[in-house]
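Can't paste images in this forum, so I'm doing it all in text. The chain is below; anyone willing to post the predicted structure tokens underneath?
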Amino acid sequence: MQENLVWLNQIDLNDMNGFQAIAWTTTIIFFAITLTGNGPSTYRFAIFFLAPFLWSIYWVRHRLHLHPFHFGLLAAAFILHNLGAYGFYKQKFAGIEFDAYVHYYFGVAGGFIVARALWKEFGFTGWKLWVGAILLILGIGGIHELIEYASTLVLGPEKGMLKINDPDKFDTQKDLLNNLLGTLTALLLYTVAGKRARTKTSYS
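Text version of the structure:
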């Protein structure tokens, strides 16, 4: 029993500084956006949802086999989303809507996290890893779209996340498509990195 406690404490000592630095820095940025943002209240007060979600991932990081770099990618995705407090979701960059970048990047960050978790926890590789990661990310994306819909039902069209007067009738489908493209990008990079690592190991 005592040996197990020492082992758990050692894990925390080894990784808590990096993970906590990311979590605390992101939380502080959330507060700054809440205080300075002049855009829709949906994004200015997103801290009350995103901060607990970020910290919950921090607390289950061992179960997820979470890598600090992937945690940083996810934190950056949350910050990117919260830039909506400054009206970014009304803008386009290089002719592409800001919303498309956000959903694509969430797919990338989530894809890395899910792929690593499936590999470490269940030993998934090859097509099983790809199918599992894609289904999980699209499932999470679908739940997010339902949450947007529910927020509008509860808070009304003005404060809700789903804008019912949006002229783009395929916004939900585009969001999920960008989630998919981001996940595919992450899986491709993850597969290539894994092959290179195995090649280096075989030559060493």
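The CA atoms of residues 64 and 117 lie 5 Å apart. The helical segments are 2-36, 41-44, 47-59, 61-64, 68-82, 98-122, 126-155, 171-203.
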